[in-house]
Amino acid sequence: MALKNSYLINLIENVKKRNQGEPEFIQAVTEVIETLEPVIEKRPDLIEAGVLDRLVEPERQIIFRVPWVDDNGKVQVNRGFRVQFNSAIGPYKGGIRLHPSVYIGIIKFLGFEQVFKNSLTTLPMGGGKGGSDFDPKGKSDGEVMRFCQSFMTELSKHIGADTDVPAGDIGTGAREVGFMFGQYKRLRNEFTGVLTGKGLTYGGSLARTEATGYGLCYFTKEMLAANGKSFDGKTVVISGSGNVAIYATEKATEMGAKVVALSDSNGYVYDPDGIDLACVKQLKEVERKRIKEYVATHPNATYTEGCKGIWTIKCDIALPCATQNEIDGESAQILVNNGCWCVSEGANMPSTPEAINTYLANGVLYGPAKAANAGGVATSGLEMSQNSERLSWTFEEVDEKLKGIMTSIFQACDSAAKEYGMEGNYMAGANIAGFLKVAEAMKAQGCV
Ligand code: NDP
Description:
The chain is an alpha/beta fold.
């Protein structure tokens, strides 16, 4: 999208200058700012209050050393991050990513996205994100524990149940959250809901594990229904085989779709009979093995090295649930050529700008990450409420609330897109709806 508004053009130029070497952050900011042009034209008061200039600068960025000792007694050093991006509507909230690709630009892009996503959930949560370049893959439980304890020793100085509440993300599942929570409790001598995604025996919420994948399907179902379609009888390709991919597969299958492919960072499996999810759960959640092991017990399935090829599989609906920029313009064009008519995002920013342009130019129904995958953080918000009340809700209660939230997120995106003359562009709708609430709160609180 080509911007005409000179204030916004200058704003993006400034972001590029001040954040050199951080292409993911620049990409995320550019996508949002480009869709806000019609809002800014109507609301000069927001420019006057410096809302956008403040919005693109994190409130606080913390970078720290994370030393730990491996199983051979050798000292290892990783780098830890927490970016507290925006607290206009509530305490900072956002996950912790543990992956070798993590650096400040990744954490800033995720934190920026989180601000709008959290606003869309209708719950009072600001945006933040954290992580480390530590790779839990191939590490023993003891090594992961020592890393998590060291990470939390520094992080604990900056977070708290009413200040900043981290959660899981890539590489941070129930095991890692448990180790981090234990260390926080030991350091502070207090049992509070300082992390979400906790185990069910110590304050976790039922349905949090399933929430992002289920929520993605609830959002997508609403988007399909608004366009006279459904999951029933459709062929679906899902990338990744982690938390989001597994529970998206479960819910899409329950809604009548056939999921035929899953992947990890090494390659993808294609099963024309439909993915056997029990097998995937055993491989990934219990045994922590690679997805290629799937074909050993499924003779009709094939495994292909490399993850990009998954987008060459013919499907009606694609649900990218692995990582950022996993669908580029070329892959998007292949999807369209093969008849794919819906892409809905479980991962954060999985589509490049060229891919998004390809969807929009070809009338593909496009569910943007910050709306479609907001079910995870929404349910984290519900975990925070349960922790504050010292109560636990049933699976059904949480799932019902999640459904309601995903439906209202879709409606907010749909109506904002219509109000600003971009009907059917749910990306613009999500950005505008998420932005307006935060912007009003920032303006009301003065120049802070
Ligand atoms: P997991 O760590 O459980 O799974 C990640 C999956 O994606 C794995 O299959 C992993 O393969 C694959 N993957 C990771 N990095 C890459 C890469 N660089 N290239 C190819 N494949 C990769 O993470 P989640 O399922 O929790 O997260 C997936 C996405 O969803 C992320 O973008 C995350 O930010 C987003 N998200 C997660 C939420 C949650 O509640 N968990 C909430 C909202 C968004 P491998 O095992 O080989 O690394």
